[in-house]
Amino acid sequence: MAAVTAKQGHLPAAVARLASSPELLNGFLRTSALFESTTLDPLSREVLVMTMAARNGCHLCVAMHTAKLTALDADSELIAALRGESPLPDERLEGVRQFTLAVIEASGAVDDDTLQSFLAHGYTPRNALEVVLGIGAYTMSTLANRMTAAPIDPQLA
Q: Helix, strand or coil for residue 148?
């Protein structure tokens, strides 16, 4: 929790609530750090996270990652599309969103056409496995935040 506080300048309420299970908190922090170190570019990673947040109805994650996308200078049209249901204005990023949803829907057993479509957007087989890592990390986060009714911190409101 100290590392999160030092990095963000405050202790997010969600982190404090997740800390009631140190194993879950540590698992999420480690897994999300691993996801951040993947070969997926930052915008693709954030598209995956926002896809998970919107799909799982985690209002806190949507707020947190809207702020992160803004810090990455993401286009406002992209952010609005990620917060809603409309296709993303960037075809490559829409490819990662659709692949993420397909991996979840198929429990990982995507068909060859789905994988080839993802690869056709410039992603790699390694990136496909990194999507699985991101789904794992943000399944933990979104479900735990909902279960604990984690509020949106004033810094994100």
A: coil
Degrees (nearest 5) of the Cα angle 46, 66, 17? 90
C-alpha 53/C-alpha 22 separation (Å) is 22
Residue 77 contacts residue 63 (beta carbons within 8 Å): no
Would you say 79 and 66 are in contact if contact means Cβ atoms under 8 Å apart?
yes
Q: What is the distance between the alpha carbons of residues 140 and 27, in angstroms, rounded to a whole number?
A: 9
Reference 45, options 121, 146, 135; nearest CA is 135
pLDDT band, residue 7 (cuts 50/70/90): confident
Cα separation, 18 vs 25, whole angstroms: 5
Do 121 and 96 form a contact (C-beta atoms < 8 A)?
yes
Quick one: how far is CA 134 from the chain centroid? 6
Radius of gyration in angstroms for the set of CA atoms belonging to the chain, rounded to a whole number: 15
How far is Cα 29 from Cα 34, in angstroms, rounded to an integer?
A: 9
pLDDT tens-digit map of 74-132: 999 999 999 987 899 999 999 999 999 999 999 999 999 999 999 999 999 999 999 99
* Single-letter code of the amino acid located at 8: Q
